[in-house]
Design brief:
The chain is an alpha/beta fold and 257 residues long. It is built from twelve helices and six strands. Helix 5 packs across helix 11 and helix 6 crosses helix 7. The two termini are 22 Å apart.
């Protein structure tokens, strides 16, 4: 069994999937033995080899969070942590966030448009900016980002299968809509590898859309906000993300508590 002296948690931080709250919990658990690692710019994707090199230079780290790091895990001493989110709830969170933040590349569209207008714009747009609400979770986990010059290509069924196999191999993926329970499961799974490991419920930057009303009610409200045609277009454009979320949710509910 690995001990706290050599085991490391890798938090694959998918944009707007409650990653700030996960980071806060990890930082509270590990203090300055937690760190973040990103590339030089937003498209500087970090391979597992670059993550491994970073960890070698910082042997005291016990947890590392990264937006730009991509699977597979950098070494056998690493343990994964990742959260998935319902694609429509995630899209609303993306919209709300980029509308507030002028530094986000989609800010101009979000600022002048309603949520429905924002979604409609990026359902029609084929630029790289559109990927943020189009199969982004499968895109993040499948390696689809590793095209020529790390440019986006359309996410296909094979990418879903690759992401599904990855998560099946990892054994568990957290669900944002079950955030507290997910942290408890991660705590139970990884307690043997770390001293006094317990990620108690701790939220930071988790919006009411995560912790508020019944899930079906929230989804129905957002579908109404989009309207039937646009909601169907969104679902079709996020077909692989919906498949991955549904698959991971089914596994979540069958995971021993």
């Amino acid at each position: 069994m690995r001990t706290e002296r050599d085991a490391v948690i890798i938090h694959y931080h998918i944009f707007k999937n409650a990653g700030s709250s996960v980071d806060a919990a990890l930082q509270r658990q590990f203090g300055d033995a937690w760190d973040t690692f990103e590339g030089q710019h937003a498209h500087d994707i970090l391979s597992h080899r670059r993550l491994a090199d970073y960890l070698k230079r910082r042997p005291r780290l016990r947890a590392l969070s990264t937006h730009l790091g991509r699977p597979p895990l950098p070494s056998r001493r690493c343990y994964p942590m990742v959260f998935l989110r319902h694609p429509l709830l995630r899209a609303k969170s993306v919209y709300s966030f980029v509308r507030r933040d002028p530094q986000q590349p989609q800010h101009g569209v979000a600022k002048r448009e309603s949520f429905a207008g924002f979604v409609d714009h990026y359902m029609r747009d084929d630029s790289q900016l559109a990927q943020v609400i189009r199969n982004y979770q499968v895109f993040h986990l499948s390696g689809a980002a590793f095209g020529p010059n790390h440019t986006r290509r359309a996410v296909v069924v094979a990418d879903f299968e690759k992401a599904r196999r990855l998560l099946a191999g990892w054994g568990f993926a957290g669900i944002v809509e079950r955030f507290d329970e997910s942290l408890k499961i991660y705590s139970r799974r990884y307690a043997p590898f770390f001293v006094d490991f317990d990620l108690a419920s701790f939220r930071e930057n988790v919006t009411q859309s995560v912790v508020g009303a019944d899930l079906d009610t929230r989804i129905a409200a957002l579908e109404d906000e989009l309207g039937g045609t646009l909601a169907a277009t969104f679902r079709n454009a996020n077909r692989q993300d919906f498949r991955l979320y549904d698959w991971a949710s089914a596994r979540f509910f069958s995971t021993p508590r």
